[in-house]
Amino acid sequence: MLITSSASKFFKRKHSVSLNGQLIDLTNPVVMGILNVSSDSFFDGGKYNTEEAILKRAEEMIQEGVSIIDVGAVSTRPGSSGISTKEELTRLLPAVTAIRKHFPEVPLSIDTYRSWVALRVIDECGECIINDVTGGDFDDHMFDTVGKLGVPYILMHAQGTPQNMQEDPQYDDIIKDISRLFSEKVRKLTKAGVKDVILDPGFGFGKNMEHNYDLLNRLDSFKVFQLPVLVGVSRKSMIHKLLEVDAADSLTGTTTVNTLALLGGADILRVHDVKDAVESVRIFTKLKEVANL
């Protein structure tokens, strides 16, 4: 069921992750802002391709209450073709460097599935969360690399690759199938020395409309892992196709789904629209406070 309180009575969840010696408090949900420096991301591709535009957007998100900025240089939308490691670094390094220089207080996440990119960016720019949409499937060295770097890791579930993931995704039971994979990979990450793992069930990555809403409806099932859960549904097709609008007109739907995700136990909302998500979190947090009186 979507709104349940029973799981929280039996499982003590982890409510913080450590980055660069500082704790990111997840006692109440937080908002991760998306800053794509790729040219073909499905919603904002090509908008942030200069340092001025990148810094302006980062400043806007900080003013709107963002807790983490997630910087990505490779589009993983359905049908995307990917880019070389060299091109990814050419886009990513200047963006992360500029944000870190001008806004050193804001925690950063880098959206990459390449361990070499993670190593290079962290070596030059300092510690960042690693947000890997492939869950280590595209790079056998990723888990060991994150363990050695000592940074938090976002473990996302995806079925297939961006090129084929939406062709005909199949599950016996989506929660059980994802949970089985999470269990296996969390064990590997722990063995590799990774101390902070964040789970992302991967809305839209190898999932059809029914899969996505089944996943949303049973999101609280992942509380059994006692790990933070990230939800990224911002302006995705599960929203705009259902509502028969363009992604540009799907903010209301996105806010609705984000709120439902909070009720289902999401600890981090990964979004394009920071202000709206922060407001949803504030309302949800007040609701939780009143419920606990």
UniProtKB/TrEMBL annotation:
Cofactor: Mg(2+)
Enzyme kind, highest EC tier: transferase
Coiled coil: none
One GO term (biological process): tetrahydrofolate biosynthetic process
GO molecular function: dihydropteroate synthase activity; metal ion binding
Pathway connected to this protein: Cofactor biosynthesis; tetrahydrofolate biosynthesis; 7,8-dihydrofolate from 2-amino-4-hydroxy-6-hydroxymethyl-7,8-dihydropteridine diphosphate and 4-aminobenzoate: step 1/2
Entry-linked Gene3D superfamilies: Dihydropteroate synthase-like
Positions of transmembrane segments: none
PROSITE patterns: DHPS_2 (PS00793), PTERIN_BINDING (PS50972)
Keywords annotated in UniProt: Folate biosynthesis, Magnesium, Metal-binding, Transferase
Residues covered by the Pterin-binding domain: 29-282
A single Gene Ontology CC term: cytosol
Annotated Pfam families: Pterin_bind
Catalytic activity as recorded in UniProt: (7,8-dihydropterin-6-yl)methyl diphosphate + 4-aminobenzoate = 7,8-dihydropteroate + diphosphate
SUPFAM superfamilies the UniProt entry points to: Dihydropteroate synthetase-like (SSF51717)
Enzyme Commission designation: 2.5.1.15
PANTHER family: FOLATE SYNTHESIS PROTEINS, FOLIC ACID SYNTHESIS PROTEIN FOL1
Name assigned to this protein: dihydropteroate synthase
Species in which this protein is naturally found: Sunxiuqinia elliptica
Classification lineage: Bacteria, Pseudomonadati, Bacteroidota, Bacteroidia, Marinilabiliales
